[in-house]
Structures are given as structure tokens and as C-alpha cells.
Specification:
With 79 residues, the chain is mainly alpha-helical. It has one domain. 73% of the residues lie in helices and 0% in strands. It is built from four helices and no strands. It is elongated, with a radius of gyration of 20 Å.
Length: 79
């Protein structure tokens, strides 16, 4: 693991003292510099989330708690 420069260490020290919302905003901005967002892909994910939410609201599908789903999946897979 690469050692942080003095400036980077100071930045982290200040950032760690900020409220969680500000730290999340900083992390989001830093992640965008590593992997920029693609508005076309983001739009597709939003449309998919909207479609799934409507299926739940309309009763077309029934939501399951994540723990229950994973337990059933593991059982079916013999894990």
C-alpha cells in the first residue's frame, strides 16, 4: 500500500472530522474521478428501478426480505 503524502494525510484528517453527509459527498466526487458516471447507463438503471417499484406497488410481484431470500437461495443451491 502506498504511503500518503503529508498533504493527503492532512486532507484525510480534516475529511474524517466532517459530518457523514459531507464525507459521502467527498467520496462520491473522488469516485467520479476514478470511474466517471455514464448518464445513459444511469438513466437505464433509474428506469429499471422505477419499473420494479411499480411492480411492487401494483402487486404484480411481492417483495421478500433480503435475509429470507438469501436463506432460500442458499437452501436451493445446497450451500
Amino acid at each position: 500500500m502506498q504511503t500518503l503524502t503529508t498533504d493527503a494525510a492532512k486532507f484525510l484528517e480534516v475529511a474524517e472530522s466532517l459530518p457523514i453527509e459531507m464525507r459521502i459527498a467527498i467520496v462520491d466526487r473522488l469516485l467520479e474521478t476514478i470511474q466517471p458516471t455514464d448518464s445513459d447507463v444511469d438513466g437505464l438503471w433509474i428506469a429499471e428501478a422505477d419499473r420494479r417499484a411499480e411492480e411492487i406497488r401494483s402487486g404484480k410481484v411481492t417483495a421478500k426480505l433480503g435475509d429470507l431470500f438469501l436463506s432460500e437461495a442458499r437452501q436451493k443451491l445446497g450451500l
